[in-house]
Amino acid sequence: MRLVSDTDTEQGSRSLRILPVPGLWTERMTPEQISSCVSGSKCGVPAPGSRMGPSLRVVGGAQATYGSHPWLVSLQYRGSHFCGGAILTEHWILTAAHCLASHSKEFLSGVRVLVGEFDQRVDDEEKQAFLIKSASVHEKYHHALPMNYDIALMELDQHIVLGTHVQPICLPLADDSIQPGTSCIMGGWGRMKEKGRVPAVLREVKLDLVDPAKCQYVLHTVRSSTRPQRPARPQPAMTVLCAGPEGGGRDACQGDSGGPLVCPAGSGEGRWVALGVTSWGKGCGRSWGKNSSRPPARRGSPGVFTDVRLLLPWIKSKLRQGGLGSGNNKTLIVSQKSE
Q: 191-222 b/e with 16+ CB inside 10 Å = b?
């Protein structure tokens, strides 16, 4: 499972359009409700009996157990999965900006957000499908710098019915001390190897967090295929974290974008927090420890994830505003409430 440096969906000349929103109904949240996303009693807990944890033996990824990722969603267009996401509340989904920003209102109006998904060949017990009502992409995201601010929120057209296999993920605290080397888990329906096949059943992989200095160093050695003539160098306000072994073999892949990298909460209460949003990478499971000695075309990278801790103020602001903010925000209104 791995996102290569191209975006998961077909690129075109279309861009996110800002639409007028007179009289729009939106789901705004109180400070207390937002706080519950961070430390709520019902977030970040897998279904009883499901197997998930840093002790899981994973080599290159393995099939997940039903209910181990109750917060994970599948974004589908015309029945085909193209990105993931994570449930924050009964109405809000966290995903990657690049999953949405290159598409028109017409495309997004045809996207189905599936929760309770596990085996895409069957209708799982708690599976539910929703439309996107509005989508907010971070104002500083730009496709030419795909590693920065790659985060978005989606508001659904109806409330999710939570259950044993459909639950929200916790947001981390800004000062959560989740250290380099921590074993985290990423799940998705992305390709099982570079240019490989797409699985029908949810898979997961264990990835250890990379030291930030090493993360930034290795990103200097790779190029973004969205701008092949320029190095994809970290920007001054870099918003990413890296995860994955130097020797490769375990990673995310095309189709995993937007899904969460979940790590054990610092509180040690058996909860999981969405520390990262699957964003970018060079190849699928390539080794990257000796990039400087390889030709550019053969270099790899760890998994690159948007660091949710750094963007908590943006997330909370959007939830308070119901996705709407100042006039320069990138909010696409996909569908109006029909009442």
A: bbbeeeeebeebbbbbbbbbeeeebeebbebb
Q: Per residue in 128-162, pLDDT tens?
A: 999 999 999 999 998 777 678 999 999 999 999 99
Tokens read off for 40: 């709520």
Enumerate residues 6+ apart whose C-beta is below 8 A from 101.
15, 16, 137, 141, 143, 152, 330
What's the topology of domain 183-309? Answer: Thrombin, subunit H (2.40.10)
104-132 pLDDT per residue, tens? 888 889 999 999 998 888 887 889 999 99
Positions of E strands within 209-308: 240-243, 260-264, 272-280, 303-307
Inter-residue contact 202 to 268 (CB < 8 Å): no
Q: What is the DSSP string of 140-162?
A: T--TTSTTSS--EEEEESS----
For 31-48+62-169+312-333, give the CATH class: mainly beta
**Cβ atoms of 283 and 300 closer than 8 Å:** yes
Residues, the chain: 339
Nearest to 131 by CA among 152, 109, 159: 109
Greatest pairwise CA separation for the chain in angstroms: 62
Same fold, 31-48+62-169+312-333 and 183-309: yes
9 residue type, one letter: T
Domain ranges of the chain: 31-48+62-169+312-333, 183-309
Q: Which residues are catalytic?
A: 98, 150, 257
Convert the pLDDT of each residue in 28-70 to its tens digit.
555 555 555 655 557 998 988 666 644 333 335 688 888 899 9
Q: If 0-12 CB within 10 Å is exposed, 13-18 middle and 19+ buried, where does residue 82 land?
A: buried
Q: State the Cα–Cα distance between residues 201 and 219, nearest whole angstrom.
A: 31
Q: Give phi and psi for 116, each to the nearest 5.
A: 70, 15
Look at the block and give the residue holding tokens 């157990």: 65
To the question of pTM greater than 0.90 for the whole model, the response is no
Q: Residue 305 — very low, low, confident or very high, per pLDDT cuts 50/70/90?
A: very high
